[in-house]
Amino acid sequence: MEFQAYQPLSDRLRPSQLSEYVGQGHLLGPGRALSRMFDSGRLHSMIFWGPPGTGKTTLARLIAHQSQLQFLSLSAVLDGVKEVRQAVAQAQKQREQFGQGTLLFVDEVHRFNKAQQDAFLPYVEDGTFVFIGATTENPSFELNNALLSRARVYVLRSLEAADLKHVLERALTLLAQDLGQSLVLTQEAETALIDYADGDARRLLNVLEQSVDFAEPMTELNTEETLPPTQNQPGLVVLTLAHCKEVLQGGVRRFDKGGEAFYDQISALHKSVRGSAPDAALYWLTRMLDGGVDARYLARRLIRMASEEIGNADLKALGVAVDAAEAYERLGSPEGDLALAQAAVYLAVAPKSNAVYSAYKSALQDVKTHGSDEVPLHLRNAPTKLMKQLDYGEGYRYAHDEPEAYAAGESYFPETMPERRYYQPVARGLEIKIIDKLQRLAQMDQASTRQRRDREH
Q1: Is the pTM of this model over 0.70?
Q2: What CA–CA distance (Å, rounded) separates 260 from 24?
Q3: Rounded to whole angstroms, how far apart are CA atoms 251 and 236?
Q4: Is the predicted pLDDT of residue 376 greater than 50, yes or no?
Q5: What distance in Å separates the CA atoms of residue 254 and residue 212, rounded to the nearest whole number?
Q6: Are 198 and 253 in contact (CB under 8 A)?
């Protein structure tokens, strides 16, 4: 028996015409950027930036087909400078011998280093090929400015549920042809597959193709799931949620642990805490935990938020965050995840102050500006006889011996730099009381200064 080479469903279902392409209406809809490009006939180099399974490769193929260009494809994961040179030679030959232009598509272009990315520039400039690169990472960080300046960046979005449903319908028609029987999904199975896909058409088609192996003829089916109106059709094969679960096994949301999505979601968590939005903070924390992020990293970020966003407005906040990190170390997942959730909610509802954070940044700037200014003699310890002879500690005022345990008018900065006021507490939480104390101490400083001036005169 002769077996045919396997071709994935996602590849078999790849559109051959733009009219069959699903999604990205913000680029391909009437009057949108790529539609205007086709209407004008002026093709340009591009970068497609978007999550997996959003149709980057397919769209590049369709652009080449629509523009009657030779389509060449490279993968930055598998190919190197040798393959780039071969593609250049093939493009040059196609133009010289047949007068046809070339579209060179580079998948995962962000994985090419600077020298490899630079190799494309001369051929983009002289029109040897139209360049389209695909990336799941932020081009601003991953691609050379020289390449970016020669290409327009288009953001491809995750497919919506309606788009995925349309892909499902086309896939079921094709799979039914393979089976020689009509194939339908229960409503529960359709919902589960679309949820699992998480905006990724390739992921949807892969799990559908695997699930079909478990489908049963209608005559043998025993289920309480919602069947489509065609349930009485002869020879019908039904795919249920129970069948799909044989493959799904509780898949997780899309989460790139080192890429753009990772930092976007961390940013969303941090901003939700800062914005006193406990429900949103809980959502982003849970989404990242569900996606497989290292919970210890989240614990460290929560500790940072306690200092940066709350500071002295609520002194318990830092302790709550540290305790949550310790609880996770003892319990692990999933038990310890709840401690992190508790901390995230507490931080979100706590009074907010970035006064310490702002003060730290200002002090750090002064440290860099003033360099290694000497410690004033009166602030130095004098544990040896020589140090005492050099006046170490001379004139130091022991605060506990002063009224209210405060040496009014004393300076603790280097003598070569002016006094600074870095810490500006806010009128929230505990810092309300801190403001009152600092104002009282400032009044004592002013009184001490007046007294010293009166003595000098």
Answers
A1: no
A2: 20
A3: 28
A4: yes
A5: 23
A6: yes
